[in-house]
Amino acid sequence: MKLYDAPWAPSPRRVRIFLAEKGIEVPREVIDLRTGAHLTDDYLRINPRGAVPALELDDGEVLCESAAICRYFDALHPDPPLFGATPLEIGRIESWTRRIEGDGYAAAVYVLRNTAPAFKDRAIPDAALTITQIPELAARGAIMWEGFTQALDRRLADREWIAGGGYSFADITALVTLDFARAAKLVPPEGLTQLARWHEAAAARPSATA
């Protein structure tokens, strides 16, 4: 088994935080995105999309999406139950994870990939596609971001962690999203005290530096 990793990319970080919370160690190979190692023939044979992370299993099968990789390890090592232990917990965590991905992470991706020169003709993370940048998507992403952070602040007004109960995969996803958004020059609006309190607590966990 081998995890193809990249130190500063958000999706691999989500897997690393998850593994750290679980206490799982996996052999890793670092893919240098700055030098284009993810677009080489060797890596494209692992993941034809040229994206990270990728988990190569002992039988040669490869899992390529960060949430899928975390689900795989959760099935192998169910404790602590970061995806929930009861049907209601599972539903809440899944609901908020999808909302964070669809409203927050997508907003940051829209802004970054449609403005940063490094993503010229690569506005979608797929090595097989040439996609030009669309400035209007960046503008929409900025609007989405403001609404997302305000909604998350309201959600945290009466609970320590996003899905209620303990720290979960939804919190991991939100932490990675908020930190990644800085690369797109997106920060929460001023005055979101509950979100700031939550972020301080999430970032203070040892797993956050994984």
TrEMBL record:
Question: Where in the numbering of this chain does the GST N-terminal domain appear?
Answer: 1-81
In this protein, which residues make up the domain named GST C-terminal? 86-210
Record's protein name: Glutathione S-transferase N-terminal domain-containing protein
Organism (species): Sphingomonas tagetis
